[in-house]
Amino acid sequence: MKLFDTDHHGVHAYDPPSQPTETSRQAAENIKPISGRLQKAVLAAISGSDQAGMTDPELQAALSMKGSTERPRRRELYLAGLIRCQKDPFGTPVTREGCQVWVKR
Question: What is the CATH number for 31?
Fold first, then answer.
């Protein structure tokens, strides 16, 4: 499946659900129709931050999105190679308030 595909299902680097429970299976099914739109929103927010990047809490606040929705979409973008963790000149991940900073590739 491609990122932002025409069915708006987005890309999934792994088959949801993350936990083998009925609740997780149902949540995974419910998110499929809108995951592409959510991925686009997360990517747009990160892209709009230029090199300052954004942390997960900053993304959640900017997009009014719960962490359980934002983090999987951000992970999908990372696994698709569209974003990366910002690193200092020594290759150490940059953090802000203890959280990794994500920037566009």
Answer: 1.10.10.10
